[in-house]
Structure formats: structure tokens, C-alpha cells
Design a protein that fits this description.
The complex is a heterodimer of chains A (about 450) and B (about 270).
Chain A (H helix, E strand, L loop, with lengths): L4 H4 L6 H9 L4 H9 L13 H9 L2 E6 L6 H10 L3 E6 L5 H13 L6 E5 L3 H5 L21 H7 L8 E3 L5 E6 H6 L8 H14 L13 H10 L5 E4 L3 E4 L4 H16 L10 H8 L5 E5 L2 H8 L7 E5 L16 E5 L6 H13 L1 H10 L7 H4 L2 H4 L11 H9 L12 H18 L3 H18 L3 E3 L1
Parallel strand pairs in A: 1-2, 1-3, 7-11
Antiparallel strand pairs in A: 3-10, 4-10, 5-8, 5-9, 6-7
Helix pairs in contact in A: 2-3, 5-16, 12-20, 20-21
Chain B lengths: L1 H17 L2 E4 L3 E4 L3 H7 L2 H33 L6 H13 L2 H12 L5 H8 L13 H26 L3 H9 L4 H12 L1 H16 L3 H6 L13 H10 L4 H30 L2
Antiparallel strand pairs in B: 1-2
Helix pairs in contact in B: 1-13, 3-7, 3-10, 3-12, 4-7, 5-7, 10-13, 12-13
The chains are: A alpha/beta (about 450), B mainly alpha (about 270).
């Protein structure tokens, strides 16, 4: 039980608050003018000269970097070796949403925001809509385009070609499965979703304590990844205030019928993931597969030690086996905040950290991140790794191959947190309750549309 | 006085001020007067949240205070062996952060690998689904009771220790037994302390947040983001970026708490002066 009011009140004397207070007595127009915060100041599209960059990188500077990556000091040290004048202070402000909440508060308060920040692909539009990120093009970021896997560059690019962040790691989706359980029940690795559904029914019938998989009713990221695989375009933004929301279209309905159907038949699990109970389930063989992403193999080998040697990796089952495709779940980037006082040094840091070959490789070997650079995905020392947990299978190679099938460009909404909460309370709830998922998709669509309209967007269906 | 102004009235005033505006992702901030309030008063999510914590209050608080009273009386009677150990044992859960408590109970409640489920299965009994829609409020009440019974017990116990022993001597001279003493002397003397614990519980119940917030991760289909009014305010502010509406909801929740506390005081006073 904690009080809420104190947490909700940012410092009362930020610029916007002050202007709003002074303007309150005059006119509403004055308020909307100061609240509108158009993208004045900061950088326009003008390129920074090499001389400016050289000068900035030799000027003693202190930068702050918010990141949750464990032991990232090693990679940061490489940067400081090259640019001894720049000191980087690494701060762990929480992982994912907690960090974004702090960042948003700091940005609003006008002080305390970092220069560089770890940010997941799906969260980028949430911060560009508030003009919080720096376009990195003037600092030479565009030159890095071919260093990174094509679809990742699409994720960090803005509508007008802006480069909002530099990719760090990725999560192309695949399937981990229990070879021993498959063997015991004579199940082939499903190549299509139809085969997958048949296997789910067969397995659960053969052994009521075992399910082919678990689709967590709280994991909107997995749902988005599966939409991505199916070629859906749930959110399309054009301009600043126009958004097309189609989370209830034909592709979504196809997914809804498929997963909702399996959940209703109770031949798959729907329990929330990353909980004690879920870890125990993976350790004790309740689930025969885990639909996951490229970061899954290392994660699983740490959390389901009891099952070492029994797991293998395969691509996702397909909707159309002749055109293999996958989606992405997870992975993150380094962005620079617009409020930084040292844009050149901060931008150079973001670029160096993720594109320097030694540093990028270190992410793969030290943090076991799945790489975002093309070079590493063909590097024999990376893809040749054959961990015993997967019976000596070259798991990285499997996911490197999957990475090249992550196709269709996928856009995120500028209000992802709301979309996620609404998904859990509509679609996720229908899966958990074995209720009508098709109808839940409609409810998700209408909740999001209402929200977006309230926030001032022009919504197209 | 300065501290009071700074720490209490200033944030309150700021929240009230915020609640008169609407800030949108597109289009900036606009003065909307009392629009947020009219919206909140007909907002089913807010009203359900308040209703749910009110129900929680009505069921959980009497149970918890009754338990606390029984424990305090038992300890005070001097009949228990190892009284100091028992007193500490009942109080210790209060020292456990509610985050840890919720995680721990979340594990115990687990329908697959939780110990209750496993014992039930071993004995071929139906497994109670503590995390289902029907059980959830009870499961939450159990956690909160477990956490706060010791705290309330200590307050009541301390109050019991201040009762002059002459009263007990007089009572025993009149031939009163332990139960009679408890009923006629101890409990009436505890009235102010009971009122205090009751007031704390009113505030605590209506602000219910940590426990549902944490169980949400293991029962997302049961605990929605507006399960309690406080949780709703949090969701509005940090998920939906609707800071102004969140301020409105918080302000109204504060008002509900003031009214509920006042009602409790009023009933208690009326009883004292018949």
C-alpha cells in the first residue's frame, strides 16, 4: 500500500508547468501554445563537420548513459580507450518500462535526463512523438545503415529518414522444443501452424499433464511478434497525428481464431510467463516447446538447468511453408536524448558502442546478446557455437538463418504501453478464460481507437 | 507548519491544479475545468475500483482487527508460554516488505507447483484456484491480514499494558474471571486504540496497491489495471500518460478516504455517548 499522489507530481517548477501557471489566467490558446512544444531548438538536419566532431571528442566531457545491460562497463571501456577525454557514467535506472517511466519524468521535469539511453525498438515511437530523441543523421549515423541487419534499420528509422537510435541486439523469433518429449510421442517438428495445432491436440491427448506450448496471456510482445510473422500491419502512422489502427483485421482474426481456438480447447497453456510457476513448468516438462526469440536459448539454459541436453531449436511454424518468415520479439538500441548538452559526443558514443566490431562482438560473447550487425551473423566463431544444453546443435546458426527471414516492415504505435495493457485485458483475458478471442480483438481495437482519439490523434481504421 | 504546507498542502494543491487540465499527446495542454471530475464520477473503471476496495474493507478489516484483538488479549493474559517468541512471530510479517510478501504468497497460491495445490493433489482433493476471479479478493485479504495483524496487535497490546492493575484487582475481588475482565474492563479501555487501528485500516484498504500490483503479473486475466482505485490512478499516469485524469482520480480517492474516515469516527463517537 503506497501513496500515489507524491509519485505523480513532478517538480512543479519545470518550464511547461511554470508557463502553464502564468498563462492560466489569460487564455486557453496561450496554454496550448506552450504545451505544444514544437521541435524548436536542438538539431535540424544540418550535418556536423568532421572538424567539429574531432574537436568535441577531444574536449573533456562527462556523459550519462542509462542502461540495464549487465557488465556493459567492458564495452564502454573500449570507447573511453579511444576517446580518453570523454567520461561515460553508466547508470542502471531499471529495465524496460520502469526506466521509460523515469526517463519520461526526467524529460518532463527538464533536468536529470541522461545523454544516451537504452531503448527497445518498440518504445522508440513513444519517445519520438514527444520529440525526446535526437536525429543522429547529422552525426554520421546514416553511414552505418549497411552495418546492421536490414529490418533493424527500418525499426530505428523515422518517417522522413531520421535515425532515432542505433541497433544493439535483436530477437528474431523461433521455437525451442523438447526433443525427448517429441520422440516419446512420435511428434515431428511442425513446419506449419496447421501441423502445430495437430501436434498440440495429439500431445495433450496422449499425456494430459503436458502441453505443446504456452502462449502467455500477458505477453503482448509475443503476440506482436506473431502478427509480424503473419505480415500484419497493426499500426501505421503517417505524419505526426494520423494513425491507422488495425489490430482486428483479417490477419489478426486469423491469429485470433488459431490461438483462441487452441486455448479454448485447452490443448495449450496460457499461464503468464517469467513467473515462478512458469519457470517450474519449463523445468518439469509441462511444456514441450517455447515460442521465443533469439535471446531465448541462453535465457532458457540459465533458467531450466534441469533439462540440459533435451532442447533443440527450430524456426517458427509457418503460415505458408514456401515463404518462410518470422517476426521479432525484443532487442534494443542506444538512443540520444534531445536534451543532451553534448550531442556530438553522445551521438558518437551511441554509434561506436554498437558498430565497433570489437564492442559488437563483446555483446555477443559477454552478454550473449543476439547480434544486430551483419558481420557477426556470418562470423564463424559466433554461428559455430554448439552448446551442450542443445545437444551440440548450432543454435546461433538456426537463429541467424531466421534473422534473414524477418521480413515485412513493422511499425509500433506512439502509445505502446496503452496498447499492451489493453491487449492483456481483452485478447489476453480471452485466451486465459477460453473465451471468444475474435470478439476480444474487436474490443482491443475499439479501446485503442477511443484512447488514440482522446489523445488527439486522427484515427483511421 | 512550514513542513506541513510544503509536504502536504503543496502537492495536494498541485494535484488539484493538474486535475483541471487535459494534456494530450497531440495538441498539448488545455484547461478543461471540471470535465475530468464529471468524467471520473461516471467512469465505471474508477467506480468499480472504489467499490472493490470498499468491499475489501468491509470484509478484511473486521477480521484482521478481531484477530489482532484476540492475540493481544491472549498475550496480555500471561497464560501463554513463550509469549515473547509468539509476539515476535506474529509481528515479524509486518517487517517483511509487502513486495516480498506478495511474491511469496503468489508462489504459495500457484495452481501447479504451489504447496497448497500439491498437498491437495496428494490427498486427491480438488485444487483450490486461489488466483481465480472468485477467490482473488479473499487471497488478497489473506495477504494483507497476514502482513498487518501483528502491527495492530502491538498497538492493542501496548494499550492493554497501560490499564492500571488496580482495576484487575478490584475485578477479581468482585469475583470476575478472565473472560469477564476482558469483556468489561480490557475491551472498553481499548476503545481509543481500536479506533486508531480502524482508521489506519480505512486508509490502508482504500489505498490498496502493492499487493494487487504484484499479483497482477501472475494473474493478469483477473487483476486488471483498474482493479483498485489506486492502481487505476497509477495506470492512467504511467501507462496512458493521462497525468491530469490520474490527478483527478487520486483527488477523488482522497476525498473518499476522508469521508470514510469521518464516517468511522462519527459512528464511534455516537456509540460512546448514547
Amino acid at each position: 500500500m503506497s501513496t500515489f499522489l507524491s509519485a505523480a507530481s513532478p517538480a512543479p517548477l519545470n518550464r511547461r508547468g511554470f508557463l502553464a501557471a502564468t498563462g492560466a489566467l489569460t487564455l486557453a490558446s496561450a496554454l496550448s501554445a506552450c504545451g505544444g512544444d514544437s521541435g524548436s531548438g536542438g538539431s535540424s538536419g544540418k550535418a556536423v563537420s568532421q572538424a567539429d566532431i574531432d574537436k568535441a571528442m577531444k574536449t573533456p566531457t562527462e556523459l550519462t548513459f542509462w542502461t540495464w545491460v549487465p557488465n556493459i562497463d567492458k564495452e564502454v571501456a573500449l570507447f573511453q580507450q579511444k576517446y580518453p577525454a570523454i567520461k561515460v557514467k553508466v547508470v542502471n535506472a531499471g529495465q524496460g518500462t520502469p526506466q521509460y517511466t523515469k526517463l519520461r519524468t526526467a524529460l518532463k521535469a527538464g533536468s536529470g535526463a541522461p545523454d544516451m539511453v537504452q531503448i527497445e525498438y518498440q518504445a522508440i515511437p513513444t519517445f519520438t512523438i514527444t520529440d525526446s530523441l535526437l536525429d543522429l543523421r547529422p552525426y554520421g549515423a546514416a553511414a552505418l545503415k549497411d552495418t546492421f541487419v536490414d529490418w533493424t534499420w527500418g525499426q530505428v528509422s523515422g518517417a522522413n529518414g531520421e535515425v532515432w537510435a542505433i541497433p544493439q541486439d535483436t530477437g528474431p523469433m523461433g521455437m525451442l522444443y523438447r526433443q525427448d518429449i517429441f520422440d516419446k510421442h512420435g511428434i515431428e517438428v511442425p513446419a506449419t501452424w496447421d501441423e502445430f495445432a495437430a501436434a498440440a491436440r495429439k500431445l495433450h491427448k496422449a499425456d494430459p499433464d503436458v502441453y505443446l506450448t504456452n502462449l502467455a496471456a500477458n505477453q503482448v510482445a509475443a503476440w506482436h511478434g506473431l502478427l509480424w510473422q503473419a505480415g500484419a500491419k497493426p499500426y501505421v502512422t503517417s505524419g505526426r497525428s494520423d494513425i491507422t489502427i488495425s489490430v482486428d483485421d483479417a490477419v489478426s482474426q486469423k491469429l485470433g481464431a488459431f490461438w483462441g481456438g487452441l486455448a479454448k480447447e485447452r490443448v495449450i497453456g496460457v499461464e503468464p510467463d517469467f513467473t515462478d510457476s512458469w519457470y517450474a513448468a519449463l523445468n518439469k516438462g509441462k511444456y514441450a516447446t517455447w515460442i521465443t526469440a533469439a535471446w531465448g536459448p541462453v535465457f532458457l539454459s540459465g533458467s531450466a538447468k534441469a533439462t540440459a541436453g533435451k532442447w533443440r531449436a527450430a524456426p517458427l511454424p509457418q503460415w505458408d511453408a514456401s515463404k518462410p518468415s518470422s517476426g521479432n520479439w525484443g532487442g534494443s538500441t542506444t538512443a540520444v536524448t534531445r536534451s543532451t548538452e553534448n550531442p556530438i559526443a553522445a551521438a558518437q558514443f551511441a554509434q561506436f558502442l554498437n558498430s565497433d566490431p570489437a564492442g559488437a562482438k563483446m555483446f555477443a560473447t559477454e552478454q550473449f546478446f543476439f547480434p544486430a550487425t551483419k558481420a557477426l551473423l556470418t562470423d564463424a566463431s559466433f554461428v559455430g557455437d554448439a552448446p551442450a544444453f542443445y545437444g551440440g546443435q548450432k543454435v546461433n546458426q538456426v537463429f541467424a538463418d531466421i534473422s534473414s527471414t524477418v521480413g515485412s516492415p513493422f511499425q509500433w504505435p506512439p502509445f505502446l504501453d496503452q496498447a499492451a495493457t489493453d491487449w492483456t485485458e481483452t485478447v489476453g483475458k480471452s485466451l486465459a478464460d477460453g473465451a471468444d478471442t475474435a470478439r476480444a480483438l474487436g474490443a482491443w481495437q475499439s479501446r485503442l481507437t477511443t484512447y488514440a482519439r482522446k489523445q488527439g490523434f486522427t484515427v483511421h481504421a | 507548519m512550514v513542513l506541513f504546507l510544503l509536504l502536504f498542502l503543496a502537492p495536494l494543491g498541485y494535484a488539484a491544479y493538474l486535475s483541471l487540465f487535459q494534456e494530450r499527446l497531440i495538441g498539448g495542454t488545455a484547461f478543461v475545468g471540471l470535465d475530468n471530475y464529471t468524467q471520473a464520477l461516471t467512469d465505471p473503471q474508477f467506480l468499480h475500483g472504489v467499490g472493490r476496495v470498499a468491499l475489501f474493507f468491509v470484509i478484511q478489516v473486521p477480521l484482521m482487527l478481531l484477530l489482532a484483538l484476540l492475540f493481544a488479549l491472549a498475550l496480555d493474559s500471561g497464560l501463554l508460554r513463550l509469549a515473547a517468541v509468539i509476539r515476535l512471530g506474529i509481528f515479524v510479517p509486518y517487517a517483511v516488505p509487502s513486495v516480498v510478501a506478495s511474491l511469496m504468497w503468489g508462489y504459495l497460491y500457484g495452481p501447479d507447483f504451489g504447496p497448497f495445490a500439491q498437498i491437495a493433489r496428494k490427498m486427491s482433493l480438488p485444487v483450490p484456484d486461489f488466483l481465480s476471479d472468485g477467490w482473488m479478493l479473499g487471497s488478497l485479504a489473506n495477504i494483507v491480514t497476514w502482513e498487518f495483524v501483528g502491527y495492530n496487535m502491538i498497538i492493542l497490546y501496548a494499550a492493554l499494558r497501560t490499564i492500571p492493575t488496580e482495576l484487575y484487582e478490584a475485578a477479581s475481588m468482585d469475583g470476575a474471571g478472565a473472560w469477564r475482565t476482558a469483556w468489561s474492563i480490557k475491551i472498553p479501555a481499548l476503545r481509543p486504540a481500536l479506533l486508531l487501528t480502524l482508521l489506519f485500516s480505512v486508509i490502508g484498504s482504500f489505498q490498496l496497491f502493492n499487493e494487487p500490483k504484484l499479483l497482477m503479473s501472475i494473474a493478469p486475466d483477473v487483476i486488471s489495471s483498474s482493479y483498485t482505485a489506486n492502481l487505476y490512478a497509477y495506470t492512467l499516469a504511467f501507462t496512458g500518460q493521462q497525468v491530469n485524469y490520474a490527478a483527478t482520480v487520486s483527488f477523488l480517492l482522497g476525498l473518499v478516504i476522508v469521508i470514510a474516515s469521518y464516517a468511522v469516527l462519527l459512528t464511534a463517537n455516537r456509540r460512546r455517548t448514547p
